[in-house]
Amino acid sequence: MRFFRRVQPNENIESGEAKVEPAASSNVLPGYNHNGHKITKGIHPEGESGRSWCSPLHFIRICARSTSRVSAVVNVLWPFVPIAIAFHFAKPELHLWVFILNYIAMVPTANLVGFAGQELARKIPKVAGLILELTLASVVEIILIMVLLRKNEIVVIQAAILGSILANLLLCLGACFFASGIRRDITHFDEHVSESSTGLLLVAGLGLLVPSAFYTALKGVIEDGTLQSRVLTISRVTSVCLLIAYLIFVWFQLRTHHSIFDQIFQQDELNDADRHKDLAKDKLTLTESIIAIVFALACVSLHAVFLVEQIPYIVKERHVNDPFMGLILVPLVEKAAEHLTALDEAWDNQMNFALSHILGSALQTALLVAPIAVIVGWGLDKPMGLNFEIFMVVVLILSIIVVGNFLKDGKTNYLEGALCVIVYIIIAITAWFYPNPHQGATNTAVVSGGH
User: How far apart are CA 216 and CA 219, in angstroms?
Assistant: First the structure.
């Protein structure tokens, strides 16, 4: 394997069979990456495409190839995108079909957001690129939650926030452990990645639990209207605190301790079983990456609106309850791209990258997405708070403890992965039978927005 290096003036480049023109100054030498592409100023060598602006044929071919075989297979679902849009306008009375088609259509569009984000992240330093990837993935989640908030689907939003964290911690992490365990007996990962994230997850879990615990402890003691008002105030203050915690964590990773994470991720790249193939792949240009992100986000927004419009029908006529809709169905589609990326990394022995995607995504949901939902609801004068069902938030805390226990020794195997997935299946079955708020659930029975 050849790594990029500085090329001296008048030196031949074997791969390109071309001469390099002398630099304007002896102190400024042109750089070339592993593929012989001249490195554009400000672009990381691994993300250099060797092209500029946008070439439609290259753009389509690279996006179709995607990051992995699984991700490329997902692209066969793209025909569902125009079909779903057409059904929404042509056959609006077919509620179930509109819901199913838009649900499926969100998978390839979210996958494109993840792929384009990864291409863009290659062009900047590793830690900053990872945070950018996670943020773009969270944009899909935020769009879906904003649409739900506009429709006053408070209960579905609350369940979706917790469900997103659970899907990452149990389903995705378990699948990654299992996939890696198939190829190797023991998979090792760095304690710095796991310890900092699991500790912060416990803090986030506590922050999400406090408003619910406050309401449960004082229900029947304080007049209900007063109690609801106080819980909403506590939720808003807690959301601001969680946002501050998230900003501190980002500063920790990007500024004060970035060298630790840079070394970890650099070593993980060397462990990549397919690194030579990945380096040789054609890359999107900066312009193409931005175009792909904008296009994919536009499609995601469209499908999110069409999907959410059908939720009342699915809940009332098809008897799919709010907790199952929010806890299981919504998170699975909004996190599809994240899960595919993490699975590919785990399969290729890049467990530190996979853990960073999984735990980082869970942290962004708890410390960024949930607070944003509460603060936006505050601005819109909607009763969006952190008063979750006690069942859901207790399950979340226990899941964080279980995952933390699996991560503490710095190694894993397929058994731990299978156990995580089994726990998620148990929670999914329980959520299916959990009653809607108006049927007597504990905390959200009096919150408007439920069905």
Answer: 5
Instruction: Summarize the confidence of residues 312-341 as an average pLDDT.
Output: 83
Percent of the chain with pLDDT over 70: 79
Please give the mean pLDDT across all residues of the chain: 79
Name the pLDDT band for 429 (thresholds 50, 70, 90): very high
- What's the DSSP call for residue 53? S
Q: Quote the radius of gyration of the chain (alpha carbons, Å).
A: 23
Closest CA to 21 of 10, 33, 29: 10
Query: What is the Cα–Cα distance from 386 to 390, expressed in whole angstroms?
Result: 11
- Dihedral sign from CA coordinates of 314, 316, 319, 323: positive
Strand partners, 32: 5, 38
The alpha helices in 152-285, defined as continuous H runs, are 154-166, 173-183, 191-218, 224-251, 258-271, 275-280
Please spell the DSSP secondary structure of 295-344, one letter per residue. Answer: HHHHHHHHHHHHHHHTHHHHHHHS---HHHIIIIIHHHHHTHHHHHHHHH
User: Helix (H, G, I), strand (E, B), or coil: what is residue 31?
Assistant: strand
Note the pLDDT tens digit of each residue in 35-84.
555 555 545 555 555 566 777 777 788 777 776 777 788 888 999 999 99
Strand pairing of 187-188 and 411-412?
A: antiparallel
Cα 166 to Cα 102, 171, 399, 401: the distances in Å are 23, 7, 7, 12
Compute the distance between CA of residue 401 and CA of residue 167 in angstroms, rounded to an integer.
15
Tokens in use for 293? 């992100």
Residue 410 DSSP one-character state: S
User: What H or E segment, with its residue span, contains residue 377?
Assistant: helix 370-379
Task: For 74-94, write each residue's pLDDT tens digit.
Answer: 888 999 999 999 999 998 888
Q: How far is CA 46 from CA 18, 38, 77, in A?
A: 21, 11, 29
Whether the predicted pLDDT of 165 surpasses 60: yes
